[in-house]
Structures are given as structure tokens and as C-alpha cells.
Amino acid sequence: MQQFFAILVKYSAFFLFALLELLCFYLIVQYNDSQRDIFLNSSNLITGTLAKKYNSAVTLIRLPKVLDSLQMENGRLMAELRRNKYSLADTTTRVEDTLYLQQYSFIPARVVSNSITLHNNIITIDKGSTSGIEQNMGVIMNDGVVGVVDQVGKYYATVISLLNSKSNTSVALKSSGYFGNLVWNDSDPLHMSLEAIPKHVPVHRGDTLVTTGYSAIYPSGIMVGKVEQAALEPGNNFYDITVRLNNDLANVQYVMVVKNLLKEDRSKTEKEGNHDQ
Amino acid sequence: MTNDILKYIGRIVFLTLLQVLIFKQLHFPLGTFNYIHVLIYPLAIITLPIRIPRNFLILIAFVMGMAIDLFYNSIGVHTSALVFTAFIRAHVLNLLEPRGGYNVNASPTRYFLGMNWFIRYLAIMVALHLIFYFSMEVFTFVYIQEILLKTIFSFIFSMVFILLYQFLFNPK
């Protein structure tokens, strides 16, 4: 301590000088416009660059979270689309002021495992029964159809991919409305076959295929793919159509599980119909 | 003794007034450049007696600098330069110490130490003061070239006026 004071006294002139200079700096920056601008600018330059660097680093870390939230937002927005609602307008004259009842809701999920090379390809997603996922729900992605939910665990679920011999999706030609079954015949992950389109239907290369909504698994009108090749074998009543999928199932990361809120009512009704026969 | 103190105070006030009333108004336009500023007020600090305590000298410089800054509307700029000058004075005096040392009662002036010694001492002090002052004025070393140009031009003119003052008054 004594030494400290000794140093303080010995260099008192320097300390006084430093103190007064600091005071001057403060006064200069405080009371002189041009110097203040320079000071603020240069400090902004430093802090600004730092903040930018920090931000870009943090953005990268936050990216998965951002994607998740975007996915949620997408699900919410898709549910708002009119085609995903069941129109009450033509069946009910007045149900308070609600003309549209929500028919489909969407549960966003991430793909945790995927395969495209097998005979029966299965996709695993990171949402299960706790998120409200049930068997036979449809799974779509932003630009096409992915498959149907098969096994449901508490936190995970498996999806029968379109690229599976068990998959059988009902799709329709957007232009004419005729529908057929989309099946996979082990070719490659981008192409599938469309069966059961009768030969009197005009089919052209490039015709768009959409989901029908008949199966109550997918909402109707989701674009599936395009006709790439349509051949009519002699003596055959149905076309031999090759379809190029709109989405690339080899590269699917975020999906939406489709929840049909009116499914129970529909299946119950259909079951009663069967009993009657 | 009291007489001496009054004399030094009078010199400080006189040089301050001389600076802010006359030399502040002087302009030597050199084309579009405004490089020339005549600063003679450091002379008051430079020529105070050698025996004056260093801390006290720095405080005097601070007060005098503030007075000049008030007239220049540049709070802190002249002050910081003059405080620096006062601080560095002891080092320069050490550097230029004659063989026999300084006389106890001497001031670093022409009267006590001769013309040659005084000009060397004055040149170092004024140059240091000016370079510090212009650095503070510009406040960034981006314009180091401008700072040096201003220092050089102002140095020449300030030296001329300070020496003129010396010959006119020849202060002790």
C-alpha cells in the first residue's frame, strides 16, 4: 500500500495530466459537434461491425428454430385456405355467421429418416401421437404429396412413402377431372405410374395431376406431378401413363401431416351406408 | 515574490487576450487551404519559472486552456493541448539541461539561457503543442497529412510571432 502511494506521488504529474486529458476528451466529445460526430461514427463503426458479426453467427445457430416457426406458420396458413375447409354454405342456410368449417388442419413435422432406394420406402417423422398424429393421415410437403402415416409412436411416426409398393394414391387430371391410381413401380424416385385412366380421355404430355380428396387423406387440389408420357397399348382399355412427380422425395426435410377433422363423421356415415346394403 | 506572481498572472492574462482578441482574427488564406493558425499563448506556460511545481503548472495550463477555449468555442481542444504542453515541459527541460544545470530561480527564457538555447527549446515546445492541438482539432488520425501540413505552416508563423513578442518585451 505504501509503495502504491509512493508511486502515486512520484508520478503524480503524469496522473494529473492523464486525468485532465481524459476530462478534455470528455468535454471535446460532449461539446464540440464535429468531434462528437467523429467519435460517435468511429465508435458506431466498431460496435456496428461487431454486432453484425455476432448477428450472422447467431443467425446460423437460430436457423433451425426459424425454419420450425416458418413451418408452423405455413401449417396455419394452409389451414386457412378455403379449399381446406368444408363448405357449409350450400348445405346449411345459416349457421350463425360461419360459412366455412375447418376440415383440414396441418401438423408440421421434420423428417428424421428417409429412404428412396428400397422396394418399400418408409419415412420417419419426428411427431407422434402426442402431437395428434394418427394412422392413415396424409403427409404432404410444400410442393407435393409425401405419403400416408403408417405406424404411430408417442413421439415418432412412420410414413408409407409414395415410393412404396403399398402406396396407392388417388389423383385426377386437373384439366378433365378423370381420376386414376398413382403407383410406384420401382423405377426411380421422380417417376410413378398412373393407372386406370380410360382410353377415351384426352391425355397430353404436361397435363397436371392433383389430389382428388376422395380418400379423405389429402385435401383436394394439391399438385402431385405432371404427365410425362402417355401411351395407349393396342387392345388395352387404359392408358399407360408415366408421371413425373412435382416434389423430389429424395430431398424432403419438412412435411405437413394432414388432419382431416371430419374424417370420423365421414367414415361413420359410409359404414352405415354399407350396413344398409 | 508577490510581485513575481502578479507578473506571471499578468503575462498569462495578457497572452490569453492577445491570442483571442488579435491572433484568433488573423487569417492567412493560402489558396483554398486554411493551414495557418498562429498560436502564441503556449509561451505563457513555456516560460513560467523552472522551479514551479509540475502539478501546479498542469493545473494552470488547464485553467488557461479553458479560458482560451471559451473564446474559440471549442471546449477542451486548446485545453488538452496546453495540458499536454505543460506536462511535457519538464521532459524537454531535462533534455536540454545545460552542463551546470539550471539556476534555481531561472525561467526558461532568452533572458536567462541565451538566444540559441531558447530557440531550440521554443521550437520543440511549439511543435509539440501544435501537433497535439491539430490532432485534437481533427480528432482522428485519418487526416494525418492534414494534421502535419497544418502543424508545419502554423509552426513557422507562430514561431515568427512568438520571437517578435520576445524581442518586443524580452520577458524574464
Describe the structure concisely for a colleague:
The complex is a heterodimer of chains A (277) and B (172). Chain A has helices spanning 2-10, 12-31, 33-80, 263-276, and strands spanning 85-87, 100-102, 104-113, 120-125, 138-141, 144-152, 157-164, 169-173, 179-183, 191-195, 208-211, 223-231, 240-245, 254-260.
Q: Architecture of the largest domain in chain A, CATH level 2?
A: Beta Barrel
Helix content of chain B: 55-70%
| Assigned CATH superfamily of the largest domain in chain A | Rod shape-determining protein MreC, domain 1
Give the C-level CATH assignment of the largest domain in chain A. Mainly Beta
**Termini gap of chain A:** 105 Å
> What Rg of chain A, in angstroms, do the CA atoms define?
32 Å
* Number of individual domains of chain B: 1
Commentary on this structure:
The complex is a heterodimer of chains A (277) and B (172). By secondary structure, chain A is an alpha+beta fold. Chain A contains four helices and 14 strands. In chain A, 33% of the residues lie in helices and 30% in strands. A six-stranded antiparallel beta barrel of chain A has the order 3-4-7-6-5-14. Chain A has a six-stranded antiparallel barrel with strand order 8-9-10-13-12-11. In chain A, a hairpin with a 6-residue loop joins strand 3 and strand 4. In chain A, 27% of the residues are buried. Chain B is built from seven helices and no strands. Chain B has 172 residues and is mostly helical. The A-B interface holds A 12-14, 16-17, 20-21, 23-28, 30-32, 34-35, 38-39, 42 and B 54-55, 58-59, 62, 65, 74-77, 79-80, 83-84, 86-87, 90, 136, 139-140.
